Amino acid sequence: MKNSGFTLIELVVTVAIVSILATVALPMLQLSVQRVKENELRTNLRQIREAIDAYKKVADMDNGPIKKTLSQSGYPPSLEVLVYGVVDEKDPNKHKIRFLRNIPLDPMQPANQASSQSDRDLLSNWGLRSYKSEANNPAEGDDVYDVYSRSRQIGINGVPYNQW
Fold it and tell me: What is the mean pLDDT of each run of 10 residues along the chain (164 residues)?
């Protein structure tokens, strides 16, 4: 009668080969996941920054659709204004001008569960820089000049995410 099946040595060798392959593949998978998150961060930062710039462009128009006083910088007072809109002073029906559909996620924040977070939570994930604050020491103020990730992690390129 012929014996069928694996011997103990064959099983040990197979398990050893599979574990070696897993140890090689796991760091590659982690790097791939980090690259995807970094690309999403770049995209989300660009989307918010373009909306801030669009608001500024419209606010700086002489007799434009957004009321602005001399003491204001022309940048939005908050990120919420970009989503919920600002009244178009030129429109007789006073419709709102919106610059973003929603607040993008900061993919570097660990608690980002899109279905469970409100807009207020999403807003608190982003660091805000006022027009009056220094670039190397961003601080919140009366307006939103720029946004940054609050993550203290370092990117693949060696630059911390909060400096992107």
Answer: 75 90 84 92 94 88 74 85 86 87 87 52 77 85 90 90 88
Contacts of 72 (CB under 8 A, 6+ apart): 59, 142, 143
Q: How far is CA 63 from the centre of its chain?
A: 33
H or E element at residue 20? helix 8-59
Written as one string, the DSSP assignment of 49-79 is HHHHHHHHHHHTSTT-SS---TTS-SS-S-H
Name the residue type at position 2. K
HSE (side-chain half, CA atoms, 13 Å) at 136? 0
Quote the pTM value. 0.75
CA distance 98 to 106: 21
Q: Nearest-CA neighbor of 149 among 131, 120, 129, 119?
A: 129
